[in-house]
């Protein structure tokens, strides 16, 4: 090797070594942060209906959610944040700044029935850790609010994201008379908690919010399956279109009625066919979009197209009766309303045809329809830049699940979201788990992002 070249090669090797050391230092630091976040998640896990095991049931406005809120309020105070709650019980911990425009970061603490410990709680605990980091290094020009939304899951009142909807003045009088499984209305639940929210009351002014960011565990297995993808930067959140499907025929005796289709009109068979048909048609829609390549709408909204029969209930059934009425719900999602509508129409037509073959009729009632929402492009770019600068492996991806961030973006607040991987892709499941290094990487990303947008100046 020519002597002249050696110094250059040596320099390159040295630069590589230094880079490796710097990355390792960053990884070690983020590991400590991951450990602290995990400790807080474990502490919050205690507030659940279950006495043992891994499952977490913490429904909105239940005593477990209240205790989790009190616990987090305590952590906020300990971190020196100014703590307050609004008329719907949403909790805010503020790191003060001089500007009138506030930066918001947050998520939720409630869970589905028998869910896991990380959904929602990660966003809250990661934000707390990031605020501690910022407080230790400087003063933000923009105040930063850590917001904990009430009742994000639809598990109790069959409607999701109640807290952020309420804060934005989007809850109606009809919403307040929604009931839970025990017949308790949302209004009653609010009263029981001493909360005075009135329908349409706006609790935050979007004009005063500079931006909102929500860290969350991914609720699928895309990041967990990827070889080197640690963070998912959310570009767009899919919106669901939901229907209630009622299969009707007539009940008959399960012992006395012969098996032939001439004799039996089994609503359960029709509903079961609907489940399979929905799966197959959704699979085909994905397949077609892959073969044909991006059409104009898919080029903009490339992402999941999914259809699921989510609940199935035999109405007035008994052990020895061929069901005469079965009720199911259908949930269809895509990143464009056009794709979603096309799939929903296909499913309903196919399901009706299959039911008629069984001598069963189908009633369809639309339950809800919310538009897909794109996250703020500026925030996506900024998150990407922070990832690159800090050696955080990342990818851009859509979210098939709904989140409060879509509500805030719809209200005109530039919003952002990022995911950390969920090991095994578990979500709404007691086995939810995220690796410590991923929990920590999210904190590093969030800290640097907030540092930039809230304009933190160093303490003298
Ligand atoms: Zn969640």
Please provide a written account of the structure:
It is a single chain. This protein is α+β, with helices and mostly antiparallel strands and 460 residues long. It folds into two domains: 22-238 and 372-458, Aminopeptidase (3-Layer(aba) Sandwich); 239-369, Alpha-Beta Plaits (2-Layer Sandwich). It is 40% helix and 22% strand. The protein contains 13 helices and 17 strands. The chain has helices at 6-45, 63-78, 121-137, 162-167, 173-176, 186-192, 222-225, 267-292, 296-300, 337-357, 377-389, 404-410, 436-453, and strands at 82-85, 91-95, 102-108, 138-140, 144-149, 209-217, 231-237, 239-248, 252-253, 306-314, 321-322, 325-334, 361-369, 373-374, 394-399, 415-420, 456-458. The strands form four sheets. Strands 1, 2, 3, 5, 6, 7, 14, 15 and 16 form a nine-stranded mixed β-sheet that branches. It has a four-stranded antiparallel β-sheet with strand order 10-12-8-13, with helices on one face. A hairpin with a 5-residue loop joins strand 1 and strand 2. Helix 1 packs across helix 3 and helix 3 packs across helix 13 (436-453). The N and C termini lie far apart (52 Å). The protein binds zinc ion. Residues 108, 119-120, 152, 216 line the site of zinc ion.
